[in-house]
């Protein structure tokens, strides 16, 4: 089960796009060095290292002791491989929570737009696979929660099954939104 976040300062830390991407790579691949993340994400190693230290400061990543080649070789891992859970409504009740949630929502929205735009762009490399699903289903609130839990469990299982640095694999993004249909009323 993923770790719930209760502190708005931690929410601000993960709202940063590069930090969020670093956490995604650590989830997908497991423990990595700043140099590994630098290559994967196309950023300077010192920038990756800085953001790893920031994530460590907020208790989201830690050094993977024993994974390095020597004491100077720093390898990082997620504190909780299952990731984090956010209840923005609860976080907004904390001091500074409204502002932190606004920053997070803005960043998450921009990232979702980027993912959707890329999915519909049509430009594909020969080794790409893309799938877009837009399904409409009628559910009660409890059924929607059950479906969300089943999808989360399925993605967790795939993440655990494929975690590692296999050169045959690349990192994929999976974005799912389950919500009442926009523009419809509860009685539709």
TrEMBL record:
Report domain HTH arsR-type positions: 9-94
Return the protein name. ArsR family transcriptional regulator
Record-linked Pfam families: HTH_20 (PF12840)
GO molecular function: any one?
DNA-binding transcription factor activity
Q: Which CDD domains match?
A: HTH_ARSR (cd00090)
Which SMART domains did the record assign?
A: HTH_ARSR
